[in-house]
Specification:
Radius of gyration: 33 Å
Strand content: over 45%
Shape: elongated
CATH class: Mainly Beta
Oligomer: single chain
Helix content: 10-25%
Structural class: alpha+beta
CATH topology: Lipocalin
CATH architecture: Beta Barrel
Largest sheet: 9 strands, antiparallel
Order of helices and strands: HEEEEHEEEEE
Length: 216
Amino acid sequence: MHMQRLLSLVFVGSAVILMSFTNAATTGKEKPAKAVTRTKKATTFQVDKNLSKLNWAGKNLTGQRTGTIGVSEGKLDLENNVLKGGNFSLDIHSIAVTDIKDAAMNAKLVTHLKSDDFFDAEKFPTARFVITKVDAKGNDTYDVTGNLTIKGITHPITFPATVAVSNNKLTAKADIVVDRSKFNVRFGSKSFFAGIGDKAIYDDFDLAVELVANAR
């Protein structure tokens, strides 16, 4: 009688141990460790044309002329606050001169700049830049490459830029040197008019761009 009871206890204990191992194995199969998925935060910033600006400067042997051109639209694409792409457009009709105070002389130069001697605003009312490559240098600095279109002519160009983001607002700044002769902006250029002498206007003109944009 005692032997039968002992055998029963051994059988029950073995069954409990076996069930414990079985449940542990089953539980491990039913609840595998979850894989961690990492995602990159992509954000598009829409350019605010009222806060963005472009200053231009053209030089000759005796001095320079300065002015502004309005930014009409644009966007910049970032991933984790790192620039990845984008574009912006300029309103050629908005071109202005800032260094001539005489109203009549100022208006005369503006009209000339809008003519086909220079930017031909009636036929080509918009200039555009589209980013094709971005080389991040760290500390919000970049080498930006893209296609610049002026007077319907497109050429690649590379320039340094800074792009900083704070409180969902982006500020991008760049100093760009453009060879106007590549875009058929001919007036006063030695590239087209030999022997023009001291009346020549340098082919290179400077653009100081500042874009302000908000996250969409």
